[in-house]
Amino acid sequence: MTPNLAMLQPLDLGFCQLKNRVVMGSMHTGLEEEKHGFEKLAVFYQERVRGGVGLIVTGGISPNFRGRLTPGATQLSFPWQVAKHRIVTKAVHADGGKICMQLLHAGRYAYHPFSLAPSALKSPITPFTPKAMSVRQVKGTIKDFARSAKLAQKAGYDGVEVMGSEGYLINQFISRHTNQRDDDYGGSFANRMRFAIEVVNAIRAAVGDEFIIIFRLSMLDLIDDGSSWDEVVQLAKALEQQDVNLINTGIGWHEARIPTIATSVPRAAFTWVTEKLRHEVSVPLIATNRINTVEVIEQILRTGQADMVSMARPLLADPEFVQKAAAGHRELINTCIGCNQACLDHTFKLQRATCLVNPRAAYETELNFPLTTNPKHLAVIGAGPAGLAFAVYAAQRGHQVTLFEARDEIGGQFNLAKSIPGKEEFHETLRYFNAQLARLNVNVKLNTRFDANEVKGFDELVVAAGVVPRQLSIPGIDHAKVISYQQLLRGEKQAGTKVAIVGAGGIGIDVAHFLAETHSATLAPDRWYARWGIDKQYQYAGGLTHAQSKCEAEDEQRTLYLLQRKTSAIGKGLGKTTGWIHRAMLKLHQVKMFSGVEYQAIDDAGFHIQHDGQSKCLEVDSVVICAGQESNRQLVDELQHCRKPVHLIGGVKVAAELDAKRAIRDAALLAAKI
């Protein structure tokens, strides 16, 4: 046990005590809208309480119909809606936990034609122009917030979090960027913050003193014409006077073109702004964004940057995060890698959120690994993401697992991913798997190719042999300047100063970033802030350098060409919440991009292509092939007549583009039933 951890210290709010300093921050899972979803949500939150979380904040619930994010999204406005919420609160309280419901009015971010906002200004991320709220509608909405909070209290919630950041309705009133009113709710900052203060005041009057009110305050808007630092402080002090119990940190509007939670964002990149506010108010503050390890949490709390820390995705990745930290087993924590692929990307596609490294997240009632009554000796061939995940899950169930890996280390494609600037978090996933393999006594055989003649000693075989690069038939493809992406990322071959990258999918874009950025800005926060125009001195409104959020070009060491046969825009198929970041990086590094390219030949002169009806020779000294991959089926063919059950998972089953999300889920589903 390590009871001296700062994260384990209780926090006294006067009328109640939080058992530790860890908040599970708000995240919409999609279960809120599913049939019987609240029963599943109850189990989801209950596991996090059992895992040690001090306080949970739910996904956003609207106080009225017009405030819903989508027409089918959840609201709490009527007494008959209380019962389903009680399912969640009873489950959390049964294990000694505390839970607050987040009140979120979308404002102009609503994805439906009934949206209301302070002013009739369309957001750049939704197709609908909102109607400007009348004073009567403003007053009615304030009452709706208070009524919803009172219903939350009746449902058994310990409090509410008022969503006043990320560019939602309350934030829209606060900022000049979206508030062009000329009445009592517009103009001066005192008027623009009036709506927020009246919402909190009405809630407090409705729920009484012994009910937690958290206000999520946008401390750093990261948009032009956002709040100034003086305005942030003025609002925080006014909220303190309204007896808000906690102030949570909000970073960046959703429309801001600056990454705030992606894996390329440095860890704890925004705790400096929470610390800055901590010198201005006495109400406890919660730090957020890219906090994913015990070490980061301890640094924040021990140096006085915040009173609590909020984590959402890290508790998708590992519901036992706090419990493992308390027991001194940090190496067993399944760390969030900030990829967004299974959580936020799903949410924005109206799918159930889950987690790439933990496919059980939000599937706790459907995907489990009970001890088997029929233990088997299983051979797992390939220690990439699919093979590693299966080995761990199967061993947890009590099967005897032998894991074969031809290379001298586990990881497969993750060993390539971890070398990309901004993807250093993949090191943590491999650390986790190494620790779990040792804990579960999995027999790991490195530098060992599985021989089809060895099947006799196993009951079943699981092939997770991954992928091999797709071969192209271009004249000169065997030229000395040609390199496969695997050879490049493993350090087996070096690229020159003028490079053509063939294939502009996720792999090609990663390779371009690898070649362009010799020192990762993710590991150098000051350079990262400068790159994205973030001003830690907060001299301008919104916290932007020179009041604008634009990447400025950095010194380039290479000339890069990124080529694809498709005529579509490069990067079109990337993740919904992170694709724009990758495209911005290509622009930042001045990568020359060509679509609709015909590859003609590679020779000493360079790479001959046809583009826009013209033949060209790119005078390059290296050509990196990133033209996709194919299933590594050699062993599969050898095992066709082995007379043992053979299962295929991951890339060897479907050679999708480095799809670790699908590979790990494949592994989990098979392990649950084998």
TrEMBL record:
Coiled coil (residue ranges): none
Alphabetized GO MF terms: 2,4-dienoyl-CoA reductase (NADPH) activity; FMN binding; iron-sulfur cluster binding; metal ion binding
Domain of life the protein comes from: Bacteria
The EC number(s) this enzyme carries: 1.3.1.34
Domain FAD/NAD(P)-binding: 377-639
GO BP terms: fatty acid beta-oxidation, unsaturated, even number, reductase/isomerase pathway
Residues annotated as signal peptide: none
Residue stretches making up the NADH:flavin oxidoreductase/NADH oxidase N-terminal domain: 8-328
Cofactor(s) the record lists: FMN; [4Fe-4S] cluster
Annotated keywords: Flavoprotein, FMN, Iron, Iron-sulfur, Metal-binding, Oxidoreductase
InterPro entries given in the database record: Aldolase_TIM (IPR013785), FAD/NAD-bd_sf (IPR036188), FAD/NAD-binding_dom (IPR023753), NADH:flavin_oxidoreductase (IPR051793), OxRdtase_FMN_N (IPR001155)
Stored CDD domains: DCR_FMN (cd02930)
Family: In the N-terminal section; belongs to the NADH:flavin oxidoreductase/NADH oxidase family.
PANTHER family for this protein: 2,4-DIENOYL-COA REDUCTASE, 2,4-DIENOYL-COA REDUCTASE [(2E)-ENOYL-COA-PRODUCING]
Protein's recorded name: 2,4-dienoyl-CoA reductase
